[in-house]
Backbone:
């Protein structure tokens, strides 16, 4: 049983990939089997963060390549999670055989409690919106600025339109906790979801990226890591039917044939 | 706010407000910025934001469309994505007269606020605060533009409605129609 959770922002530069891997590691530490699927077209980002920049086999190979490639070949054990590099953008998987796509996702989902989808930053293309369509819930990563909030609200509305719930808002790269406290109530009202955390801006986040490690591996004792762990603890992943998740992937990605 | 026309330094489209504010800061512009985001967050799409800057430091904000000033004007001139920016240079003493005029204090913004709420760039915000003179009229301003933005239920409702409609249109375009709630 699995729940698919998309981590999205609507705007670049919010630290979404850092957040995805941090939430994944925190959930894994809490005993969940976590699979992170890189659904971001700028995928070099996640791969770099997870020390996977030269992954030989990706989801792309699994769906469109040699039939002999097994799901296990495209999943990599990293930092207590399984990481699946995408290899291209999800929209390109329209060429995939829908049955194969459904099988692959079902197999990924069967071994996971949580499928975390690291989503592209903007909502400008089909492949960018797909993770939000496919997920059961979305975590919206924001900075406490007006443009980021308006973009985040847009993600929330897209999610709602596609029947995806908003799990919560994660304020990231926060310089002053008062900035979040000042807008917490209104944020929760508009998003109809809790503020999961206000993650402080910190040099360790940049250091972790430079080191090619997720924050929770690089600086587990940092205040930022603590905040991500608090956020993950309140996510409380749900048990969903993996076949339903797989069917949704197949029908949304390949709508005409799914 | 009555501003001298001044001389156009540049008029171009910047990637976002951060570029606009940083450029003014770095070139220590004395004059004002006229800011028109490509995607406005206003219900009424008319008008532009005007932000005066002295030695690159933001001083007064107003919006020609909403007629609001100060923190409210910063909320009105925000917008995601590219922004049309005109930078105008004004003689320092003429600008000082504008800043000293009756009613100007109501338009004053704290020097770091534009960077904080429009860009999240704390370094730029801190640099503006540091450079601001002790008699900056917004030095003690406490109104929060972010709170002003979120307090406008009607505007937020309209933004949400627009996004919901866009999501539905695109669902048809991209073949997600079956996934619509």
Residues:
């Amino acid at each position: 049983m699995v729940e698919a959770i998309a981590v999205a922002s609507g705007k670049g530069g919010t630290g979404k990939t850092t957040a995805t891997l941090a939430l994944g590691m925190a959930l894994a530490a809490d005993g969940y089997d976590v699979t992170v699927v890189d659904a971001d077209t700028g995928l070099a980002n996640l791969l770099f963060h997870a020390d996977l920049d030269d992954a030989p086999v990706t989801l792309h190979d699994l769906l469109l390549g040699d039939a002999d490639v097994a799901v296990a070949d495209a999943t990599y054990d990293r930092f207590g999670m399984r990481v699946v590099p995408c290899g291209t953008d999800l929209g390109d998987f329209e060429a995939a055989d829908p049955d194969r796509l459904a099988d692959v996702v079902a197999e990924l989902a069967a071994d996971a409690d949580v499928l975390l989808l690291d989503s592209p930053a903007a909502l400008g293309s089909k492949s960018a919106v797909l993770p939000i369509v496919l997920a059961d819930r979305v975590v919206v990563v924001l900075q406490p600025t007006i443009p980021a909030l308006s973009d985040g609200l847009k993600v929330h509305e897209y999610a709602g339109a596609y029947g995806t719930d908003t799990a919560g808002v994660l304020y990231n790269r926060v310089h002053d906790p008062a900035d979040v406290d000042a807008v917490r109530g209104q944020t929760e009202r508009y998003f109809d979801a809790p503020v999961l955390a206000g993650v402080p801006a910190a040099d360790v986040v940049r250091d972790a990226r430079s080191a090619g490690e997720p924050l929770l591996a690089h600086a587990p004792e940092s205040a930022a890591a603590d905040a991500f762990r608090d956020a993950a603890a309140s996510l409380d992943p749900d048990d969903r039917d993996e076949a339903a998740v797989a069917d949704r992937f197949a029908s949304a990605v390949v709508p005409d044939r799914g | 706010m009555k501003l001298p026309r001044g001389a156009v330094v540049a008029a171009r489209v910047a990637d976002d407000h951060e570029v606009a504010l940083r450029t003014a800061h770095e070139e220590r512009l004395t004059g004002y910025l006229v800011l028109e985001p490509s995607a406005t967050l206003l219900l009424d799409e008319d008008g532009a934001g005007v932000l005066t800057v002295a030695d690159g430091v933001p001083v007064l904000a107003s919006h020609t469309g909403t007629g609001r000033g100060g923190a409210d004007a910063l909320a009105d001139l925000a917008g995601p994505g590219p922004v049309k920016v005109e930078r105008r240079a004004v003689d320092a003493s003429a600008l000082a007269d504008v800043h000293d005029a009756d009613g100007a204090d109501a338009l004053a913004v704290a020097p770091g606020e534009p960077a904080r709420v429009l860009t999240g760039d704390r370094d730029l915000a801190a640099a503006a605060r540091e450079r601001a003179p002790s008699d900056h009229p917004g030095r003690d301003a406490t109104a929060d533009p972010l709170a002003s933005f979120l307090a406008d239920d009607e505007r937020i409702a309209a933004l949400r409605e627009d996004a919901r409609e866009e999501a539905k249109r695109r669902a048809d375009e991209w073949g997600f129609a079956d996934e619509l709630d």
In short: The two ends of chain B are 48 Å apart (CA to CA). Chain B has seven helices and five strands. Strands of chain B lie at 7-14, 31-37, 49-54, 57-63, 83-89.
